[in-house]
Automatic annotation (TrEMBL):
It comes from Mycolicibacterium helvum. Pfam families: Fer4_15. PANTHER family: FERREDOXIN. The lineage of its organism: Bacteria, Bacillati, Actinomycetota, Actinomycetes, Mycobacteriales. SUPFAM superfamilies: 4Fe-4S ferredoxins (SSF54862). Residues 70-90 are annotated as: Disordered. This is Ferredoxin. It comes from the Bacteria. Keywords: 3Fe-4S, Electron transport, Iron, Iron-sulfur, Metal-binding, Transport. Its cofactor is [3Fe-4S] cluster. GO terms for molecular function: 3 iron, 4 sulfur cluster binding; metal ion binding.
Length: 99
């Protein structure tokens, strides 16, 4: 059995194609205009993994992403002005912004 995964849906990118709801109706619903919403908290059990991956790969605008194990898992965003004493901060690769 496959391990559970987590996904995120960026509704600002969604263009309402509805492919995600077609492939994984247990995880995506469509509003009256055809735009997707995520059902639940984004946790995908192993049995639904293939359907959700098909929805992720077939999304024409890439509005669905898989969340890695430590990303957004209760971790606070680091402050750019308080680097650790023993390392140079590398915020650009992890958080997408520069100092």
């Amino acid at each position: 059995m496959s391990r559970a995964m987590r996904i995120r849906l960026d509704r600002t990118i969604c263009d309402g194609f509805g492919i995600c709801a077609k492939h994984a109706p247990k995880h995506f619903s469509l509003d009256d205009w055809g735009y997707a919403s995520l059902i639940g908290d984004g946790t995908v059990e192993g049995a639904d993994r293939d359907d959700v991956l098909r929805a992720l790969f077939d999304c024409p605008v890439h509005a669905i992403v898989e969340i890695s194990g430590d990303e957004f898992d209760g971790e606070a965003r680091p402050s750019p002005d308080t680097p650790a004493a023993d390392e140079t901060p590398v915020f650009e690769a992890r958080w997408g912004y520069a100092q």
